[in-house]
Amino acid sequence: MLIKRTFDFAHNALEKYSREDMFVTKYNGKWEKTSTREFIALGNKVSRGLLKLGIKPGDKIALITTATRTEWAVMDLGISQIGAVSVPVYPSISPDDYNFIFNNADVKYCFVSDIDLYEKVMKIRDNVPTLQGVFSFDEINGAPNWREITDLGSDEATQSEVEDISKSINTEDLATIIYTSGTTGKPKGVMLSHLNIVSNVLGSNPRIPRVKGLEFSDIKILSFLPICHIFERMLFYLYQYNGYAIYFAESIEKMGDNIKEVQPHIMSVVPRLIEKVYDKIYDKGTSAGGLKSQIFLWALGVNKAKEKIGKPSGLKEIIADKLVFSKWREGLGGNIITLVSGSAALSARLNKMFQNAGIPILEGYGLTETSPVISVNSFGKIKVGTVGHPLDNVQVKIQEDGEITVKGPSVFKGYFKNEEMTKEAFTDEGFFKTGDIGHIDEEGYLHITDRKKEMFKTSGGKYIAPQVIENLAKASKFIEQIMVVGDGEKMPCAFVQPDFNFIKNWAERKGLNIGTTPAEMVKSPELIARIGKEITYLNTKLGNWEQIKKFELTPEVWSIELGLLTPTLKLKRKAIKERYLKLYNKMYGHQE
């Protein structure tokens, strides 16, 4: 069938790939399967139930879930095929942001996964005049349950109304409003049409690897990134398009157990997760002691020395793979075809290491406003340090100042209720301004170098690209987060959030008494000196004008809850600087 709207992916799956395990979610310790046929039936019930509640095309319905689950997928189908607009919201944002989003979008109904989110929404309910009801997926005493909607729609007599509305929905119609977390200011409502998302799925699909001897029906996905983010949501539709089974992970904390149980073939990841996985592997390998640690470190050396990415060749590589890297693959379930990485830049060093360990990573690039993929690597054409070739249906133009601009069917309709900001987002030629700096090399690969807005000038007039420096610094096991500062100052400096778990183990190995809490550790002369060595090494890779002259250790873990990271784990630079203003003034000798 011809796919024009997001809900067409589900109906196409029923026609071509009907399976017993289209979606699988764990409830009370047991994986429960939902077949393609059951999924469509439930989606139709939701559509009929919402129509009985008075929902009309264009009405906004919020979806909030702590972890993605089958109910979210059912609601998405039920909402979209009657022309209503889904407003997926991050579970971790503040009540103030909930209040803003619900009022800005004129949300009529909201569906949440659990009691914590239900209580969070109920706190702002009276501030949202358009909000008529809040339903929960979990059973909560005194709270309306989402099953009330499916019960309301159990009578199939009105299915013809659903189908009539569905047929009338155009590809250009609004499908969803996704509020970007933003590193400053209020969230922006990105309007994405059915065409935006569908064109991105179809444009990205050729980049997904096909493995000889493995049927589409064999492939299992483990989905754990927030589905409110367009990266995971676009892949959610792409997996449906290919007939894959989608298992929803319980949580980040239970990822290890879920990987062993599901043994997935494909997972989408963010760079921070890959960094964490490698840190665990390294700690385990180096703490084994004796011959085991020696073999582990030798294998890492073989991996690093390998010039061309590919299967092991030569006796050393074969032995290293057998003794060490095969265990890495087993740790990821043993079936991994590829990890798809997005949301932020992945360290080229780690990327190469995983590729050479037989765990291919397809690194891509995009924004919410581009639905999201602009470019992505593909099997046989992986170039580490790049985000691959632009999609065939996307036009990329590098402006004179180096900014990456984009045109194509996946570029968004605009910012909801903000025509001025929408106009500012495009060039006179109609290219969307990504705000990222980069270039396309002679082989057509796109390189991202920095965020345009995050680049700054020192008082000496030298430009500093902080992300480049920060990505290099995070190769250190001692540094979990770092933010380079110095806009208008005479030199670059940095806030450093140490990796406190690694440092505890390091201090124990060295017999150092540096305290047990982050606040105690950052005052330790030994730790300050050791991180100083890391910064000194970092500076050897930088030009004189961009070298870090001073740094201060921050006494806590930067988190979403503290308001220092966005829900996609990007630095909220303004908030970090404000929180550690005393340390900033200390580095630059400013009077407080």
TrEMBL record:
Any one GO CC term of the record: membrane
Top enzyme class: ligase
Gene3D superfamilies in UniProt: N-terminal domain of ligase-like
E.C. number(s) listed in UniProt: 6.2.1.3
Chain ranges of the AMP-dependent synthetase/ligase domain: 23-416
Pfam family membership, one: AMP-binding
GO molecular function, one term: long-chain fatty acid-CoA ligase activity
Protein name in the entry: Long-chain-fatty-acid--CoA ligase FadD15
Source species: Chryseobacterium salivictor
Organism ancestry: Bacteria, Pseudomonadati, Bacteroidota, Flavobacteriia, Flavobacteriales
